[in-house]
Specification:
By secondary structure, the chain is mainly alpha-helical. Helix content is about 60%, strand content about 10%. It has 3 helices and 3 strands; from the N terminus they run ααβββα. Strands 1-2-3 form a 3-stranded antiparallel β-sheet, covered by helices on one side. A hairpin with a 5-residue loop joins strand 2 and strand 3. The chain starts with a helix and ends with a helix.
């Protein structure tokens, strides 16, 4: 089982990270910019997954706000959020403002670095 998890982690995390790094270096994007892009990108993915799945009682039984309230968990994948449907039919979010702020900060950092790399690449091409 641990060997399977190692191969899965390599396929899911290692290969995409290596491909982004190699393509970025080939395009002559600075290493610091690639590092920030990869860290912010993976933080965006992990934070988005955690935000969208937090209400699911089968994943986090003791910490799920929907556990024991007989309310139906609802997941939303973009923007990532999780809700509990209460007896009155209202959907109430289970994620606070701080966790949503962390997701959007990471997502915007990823986007800003990507745009900055495109401008840098275009600037380098015009100088050559």
């Amino acid at each position: 089982m641990s060997l399977f998890l190692l191969f899965a982690a390599t396929a899911i995390i290692g290969i995409p990270t290596a491909m982004v790094w190699l393509l970025g270096r080939r395009a002559k994007v600075p290493g610091w910019m690639l590092t920030v892009f990869l860290l912010a990108g993976w933080l965006t993915v992990l934070a988005g997954w955690a935000l969208s799945q937090r209400a699911q009682p089968f994943l986090f039984p003791e910490t799920s706000p929907c556990y024991g309230t007989r309310s139906t968990p609802v997941s939303q994948y973009f923007p990532p959020d999780a809700f509990c449907r209460h007896a009155d039919g209202e959907l109430r979010t289970v994620n606070g403002a701080n966790s949503k702020f962390m997701f959007w900060s990471a997502a915007n950092t990823t986007l800003a670095v990507m745009i900055g790399a495109a401008f840098l690449w275009r600037h380098q091409r015009s100088r050559a």
